[in-house]
Amino acid sequence: MWAGWALAASLAGALTSCSSGSDGGTPPPTSSAQRCTLNAKAVPSCGVLWGISTQPPTAQQLGTVEKAAGRPFDFVYRYHDVNDVVPDAQERGIVAKGRLLHIAIAARDFGAASRADISWADIANGAYDASLSAQARGIASLKKPVFVTFEQEANQRTKLGVAGSAADFKAAWRHLHDLYRSAGATNAVWTWVMTGNADNLDRAATLWPGNDVVDWISWNVYNQSGCHSGTVDQVKFKSFADEVAPFYDFVKERGPSIGMDPAKPMMISEAGSVRYADAPQLSADWYAAIPTTLRKYPQIKAVALWDSVTDTCNYDFDSDSAVVSGVRRAGMDPHLDIGGALSPRS
């Protein structure tokens, strides 16, 4: 059922069948007459790429989650600091199996004893050029599109003003973009990732680095239900649709005023619902509703799930049979199961 994609320009691949709808009704049947392609910026011509971020970020865990989800994912989201080897051996294996990568580079040194933030100004001024250029050459060596993000969710309170100013962030982003270009990493697909929370939108507005250095606009979407307080409260449930809308509306309404082209392709780079101990079906339905919501937002061309336990928030879906059933329903929907990126279905 899964064939490879046809990539534009010099990217090789085979054509695959795809179908997509425009509203939130019953998913349309897959049409063998319609063909879907992936262009050089990894934008699918129809439907939505289905991605994943796992903890731990291992090949074994990826296999476990894919088995639970009932299909391979189209792309895998991985996180690195400024000194890491990029791509690492596991990431090369992911690409070799036909999947895309999304790589986030954090202004951190996870190997340092303090694990402290690195200033955006230092990055912009070239203090980490040697390691960042090596990473860029690694990305270039893959010879396939790779989503690349510098400092995902920079609009968090714990980042903006701590790692530097908005001007520092934009300068660092543009400097990294220049390094990649110099290293020949023209396959990098620059993906600006913000947190989608409504109370972070004003900060996001100060962090746009420029249309010439951003290919995709992305944000993260969570149903937290108060989990950061240590108590999950069903009363605070927010649907996927509830959480997608604020940032999408921000892009459309405020984007032009900050110099943003609001027509760029969009991605939900992390998405997850907390698990409810007494109501797992509530989480399952949250995931199952993703395709219906995305049909209303045809500009959103990719979405990745966050399968992890973070502090007091449990977004681990693959170990709960009820919750994973919702993920399976979403991933098998024709709007997301668009021929699968890039690897044959096993």
Number of E-state strands: 13
* CA-based gyration radius: 19 Å
Describe the main β-sheet briefly: 8 strands, parallel, barrel
Q: What general form does the structure show?
A: globular
Counting helices, strands and paired strands, the structural category is alpha/beta
Number of domains: 1
Produce a short descriptive summary.
By secondary structure, the chain is an alpha/beta fold. The chain has 10 helices and 13 strands. It has a single domain, classed as Glycosidases (TIM Barrel, Alpha-Beta Barrel).
Describe the structure.
By secondary structure, the protein is α/β, with parallel strands linked by helices. The chain has one domain (6-332): TIM Barrel. Helix content is 29%, strand content 20%. The strands form three sheets. The protein has an eight-stranded parallel β-barrel with strand order 4-5-6-7-8-9-10-11, surrounded by six helices. α2 (89-96) links the parallel β5 and β6 (100-106). It is globular, with a radius of gyration of 19 Å.
Describe the protein's topology.
Layout: E1 6-7, E2 16-17, E3 35-38, E4 49-54, H1 59-69, E5 75-81, H2 89-96, E6 100-106, H3 120-124, H4 129-142, E7 146-150, H5 166-182, E8 188-195, H6 201-205, E9 216-223, H7 240-254, E10 266-273, H8 280-288, H9 290-295, E11 300-307, E12 309-310, E13 313-314, H10 321-332
Parallel strand pairs: 1-3, 4-5, 4-11, 5-6, 6-7, 7-8, 8-9, 9-10, 10-11
Antiparallel strand pairs: 2-3, 12-13
Helix pairs in contact: 4-5, 8-10
